Amino acid sequence: MSYQAVLKELGLKMLKATPLDFVKAARDGLPKKSIDALAKKLDVSLSNLAKYLHVSERTLQRYGPEKILSTDISDRILQITKVYTRCLDIFEDNKVAAAWLKEPCTAFGNIPPIDLLDTSTGIEMLLDELTRLEYGTVS
């Protein structure tokens, strides 16, 4: 997973993307259209994605596509996209990656991985599990 790959998944273009560029992108705020791109990639509704972003669906609906989002929402979008991009690295297929996130997972007590995207600890758990899957380590 590269930072550039994460930004590409959101339809954002940067010549290079380092961790500091990631921080800058979050601080500057992403456009609302990045939420739409992420919802499409994850194959979830705006209302489902809103709960992982800690914002109401209605608030998101009021925003135009070029509306610049807050640092908190932008950072959460980047972190969730990082998980999705990591899934793509491992499963190599958009539909399989999105499906894995929605299927109950024994490693998480039969909770679908997507339900862990609402906290930073949950995101860390998902990234750790994806690394274990990549290397064939059963958790």
Features:
139 residues
Overall form: globular
Instruction: Count the DSSP helices.
Output: 8
Count of strand segments: 0
- What is the CA–CA distance across the termini? 21 Å
Mean pLDDT across the residues is 90
As a whole number of angstroms, the C-alpha radius of gyration is 14 Å
SSE topology string: HHHHHHHH
Instruction: Count up the domains.
Output: 1
What are the low-pLDDT stretches, counting only 5+ consecutive residues below 50?
none
**How would you characterize the largest beta sheet?**
none
Helix content, binned percent: 55-70%
Provide the structure class.
mainly alpha
Strand fraction: under 5%
Describe this structure in words.
The protein has 139 residues and is mainly alpha-helical. It has one domain (3-134). The protein has helices at residues 3-9, 19-28, 33-42, 46-53, 57-62, 71-91, 94-102, 120-134. The longest helix is centred in the middle third of the chain and has 21 residues, at 71-91. The protein starts with a helix and ends in a 5-residue tail after the last helix.
